[in-house]
Amino acid sequence: MENKYIQIFATTENKKEAEKIADVLVKEGLATCVQIMGPIESTYIWKGKTKKSKEWLCLIKTKTSRYGKVEEAIKSIHSYKVPEIIATPIIAGSVEYLKWLGA
Known about the structure:
Elements (H helix, E strand, L loop, with lengths): L4 E8 L2 H13 L5 E14 L2 E15 L3 H11 L7 E5 L5 H7 L2
Antiparallel strand pairs: 1-3, 1-4, 2-3
């Protein structure tokens, strides 16, 4: 079964940046839906040191074929030097939802 749809995870420094990413992706037809969650707390290694930050998480639903353009759009907006942009396949979903997602 071919994975036609993906969910992309992207974190941002603040809600305003997450909202801008969501607006651009949906308005440009690169994503069907973007949900914003947060704040969340992230613990990570940056330049050899353990850091903690409050972040906002974008859950982006789109077609697999749009990934490259989505990544490019996020990077053009994002304030991080190395933003989190991770895609996972959607392997199942309701027929109605997947039909809507593919529109």
